[in-house]
Amino acid sequence: MAANFFRTVQGYLRIRVTGYAVERFLNACGYRGILLWGITPLEDACEMNIRIADFRKLKPVMKKTGTRVVILNRIGLPFFFYRYRHRKSFFFGAAACAVLIFLLSGLIWDIDIRGNLTYTDETILEFLASKDIQNGMLKTQIDCERIAKDIRKEYADVIWVSASVQGAKLKIQVKENTDASGMETDLEVKKEEKVPMDLVADRDCVITEIVPRTGMIQVRPGDTVKEGEVLISGLIPVQDDAKEIIGYQYQKADADIRGKAILPYEDVLENTYSRKEYFYEERPHQMRRRQAYYLRVGRFQLAFGNLQKKEENQELHTSEYQICLGKRLKLPIYLGTRTVIPYTAHPETYEKKEIQERLSADFKRYLRELEKKGVEIIENNVKIYTGSKTSAARGELTVLLPVGTLKASQIPEISELPK
Amino acid sequence: MKSKKQTTKTAFGDHPIREKVAEISELPRDAVLGMPLLTVLGQSEFTLENYTGIIEYTDALLRIQVKGGQIKVTGKRFQVVYYANDEMKVKGCIHSIEYLSSEAR
């Protein structure tokens, strides 16, 4: 296989040798170190392959053995180049292709991250991008040790990192410490301890229940609080023997607080609507539509097909596909389809029963969403009001809901400290 | 002038002194004695080293001159894959391989 390739690169000839003693010709060639291959015997001749350089040595052999040599075929690159010597642009293209492959293979085309469980690929890629490690950069600029160090430094629970360049791919393998998940939170807490955080009310409500974990309680069950009021303080006062506050311990306030609040609800529905009637083709039985394709490169767009407006009403659907090299290298090239579906609009009015059904369905969906957030509904005063033009579900919900959102504490000045 | 002893050593490997030398020195006999080295792969291919030349070559018969005799191979569809000064390889369907010593001829 390899020998054949090199012979093709060097070029060779298929020759036919005729004469009284072809065997003598073969022996003479062997004696002179001329390599022959693919020797096929014919009735009174022999066909074989010979290298170009060896062919030039054949004259004395032919003379001595009384044979004649005819060239049947010229095979290989030298003949190929000679035949197409006038096609300069072809050779230029081939050379440009080789140069481009050489240059582009010096870049990183893909970053492959493996072994990450808690951190997503996107998170790590973002971090790498902040360190100027991204697709399209020069391979020579990559310092694998530096990358490994940076990742270990940034992510405390990553216990092992390996970065290597394989071809045009930067391969990053990480191992996370899955056993000691508490360690990470401790570290995070230590980091955040420096900034005290309060738990403040995110809406007006009456506090019903408090289960504190960290911080100083500022309210009691039964208290009415306004939005923004501190419920649990992240500043824990440090007192001396005389019960005077000499400083504060900074904490991130943490507690489960529930409060009773009133949520207003309103959902308005127009009594009239526009019913769409699509056109159907008879055969094959499908919706009438017109499609056009386009190619978008950056801001420039090349459309194939015409989608001029023929009907008064029509829907326009567009779907776009971004071309990617490998898994992550997204090129600014998009292939897209635009579909126009014409329709006729018919004004219609909802019946009373239909209005009720629609508004009830919307309200039930809203309640389900609330329940997912841990909200408990105590009282429901929502009613449906039907008007001539619009109908509405309106009212109030009394609920028990989790209260509290984190906010940085206001640290009092030393002078403000009570004496 | 050739001695009597020398004129009688015509068959393959019939060269007692050289054979002894080869045996004592533990050198490969094909290299020391110039004996032909034939490697046959099944019935379809053979490689031959240490030959002098081809005497006859058709697609059904191949007679090769070697030191101290000839090797005659019969079969069909013979094709010499390569032919160099020291080695040749032949493909085809081999029916028989015969060793013809100079004496027998």
Description of the structure:
- The complex is a heterodimer of chains A (about 425) and B (about 100).
- Chain A has about 425 residues and is of the alpha+beta class.
- Helices cover about 25% and strands about 45% of the residues of chain A.
- Among the domains of chain A are: about 80 residues, Alpha-Beta Plaits (2-Layer Sandwich), CATH 3.30.70.260; about 70 residues, membrane protein fhac (Ubiquitin-like (UB roll)); about 80 residues, no CATH class.
- Chain A has 10 helices and 24 strands.
- In chain A, strand 2 and strand 3 form a beta hairpin.
- The termini of chain A are far apart.
- The N terminus of chain B is likely disordered.
- Helix content of chain B is about 20%, strand content about 50%.
- Chain B has a 6-stranded antiparallel beta sheet with strand order 1-2-6-5-4-3, with no helix packed on it.
- In chain B, strand 5 and strand 6 form a beta hairpin.
- The interface between A and B is medium-sized, with 17 and 16 residues.
- Strand 2 of chain A pairs antiparallel with strand 5 of chain B.
- Chain B: InterPro entries: Spore_YabP/YqfC.
- Chain B: It comes from Dorea phocaeensis.
- Chain B: This is Sporulation protein YqfC.
- Chain A: It comes from Dorea phocaeensis.
